[in-house]
């Protein structure tokens, strides 16, 4: 039985995140466990997540989940807008809540870091060749 869709296609925050994520070489989108997932061979970002508190999932519907460097993850987790996502958190993934005040330049940097950890050397080289 497939997971229910847990996002609104018309969500402007999703639209902004989607534009950033799909700009990476060979990036595509699929729905995974009811959420948009951005991937090449492996997923580098998810839109929407949750944390498990006392056995109950608390949703972070407008957030991005990325895989970043462990030192950067530790620093970001000191901020209230960041969380350890259920299921993916033990593998090093980090959730960041997105709002109208989000610094989208920072989100692009987090996506870049996650892409670099998952996309493979040829795609990373293509990404680097596009950058000034």
What attributes characterize this protein structure?
6-stranded antiparallel beta sheet; 132 residues; alpha+beta; globular; 30% strand; Aspartate Aminotransferase, domain 1; 6 strands
Element layout with pairings:
Elements: H1 12-21, E1 28-32, E2 35-39, E3 43-53, E4 56-67, H2 70-76, E5 82-83, E6 93-97, H3 104-118, H4 121-130
Antiparallel strand pairs: 1-2, 2-3, 3-4, 4-6, 5-6
Please name the CATH architecture: Alpha-Beta Complex
CATH C-level label: Alpha Beta
The residue fraction in helices comes out at 25-40%
Query: In sequence order, what are the helices and strands, one letter per element?
Result: HEEEEHEEHH
Total tally of structural domains: 1
Rg, nearest Å: 14 Å
Write down how many β-strands occur, each being a DSSP E stretch of 2 or more residues: 6
Which class do the helix and strand fractions yield?
alpha+beta
How many DSSP helices?
A: 4
Envelope shape: globular
- CATH topology-level name: Aspartate Aminotransferase, domain 1
Amount of beta strand? 25-35%
Would you tell me the overall average pLDDT? 94
Oligomer: single chain
Low-pLDDT regions:
none
Major sheet: order of its strands?
A: 1-2-3-4-6-5
Largest sheet: 6 strands, antiparallel
Measured between the Cα atoms of the first and last residue, the distance is 46 Å
GO molecular function: DNA binding
Pfam families: YjbR (PF04237)
Protein name: MmcQ/YjbR family DNA-binding protein
Keywords: DNA-binding
């Amino acid at each position: 039985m497939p997971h229910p869709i847990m996002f609104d296609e018309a969500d402007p925050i999703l639209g902004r995140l989607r534009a950033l994520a799909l700009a990476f070489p060979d990036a595509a989108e699929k729905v995974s466990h009811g959420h948009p997932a951005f991937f090449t061979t492996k997923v580098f970002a998810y839109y929407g997540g949750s944390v498990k508190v006392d056995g109950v999932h608390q949703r972070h519907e407008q957030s991005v989940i990325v895989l970043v460097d462990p030192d950067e993850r530790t620093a970001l987790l000191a901020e209230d807008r960041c969380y350890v996502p259920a299921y993916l958190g033990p593998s090093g993934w980090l959730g960041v809540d997105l709002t109208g005040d989000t610094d989208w330049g920072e989100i692009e940097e987090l996506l870049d870091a996650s892409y670099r950890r998952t996309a493979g050397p040829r795609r990373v080289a293509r990404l680097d060749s596009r950058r000034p």
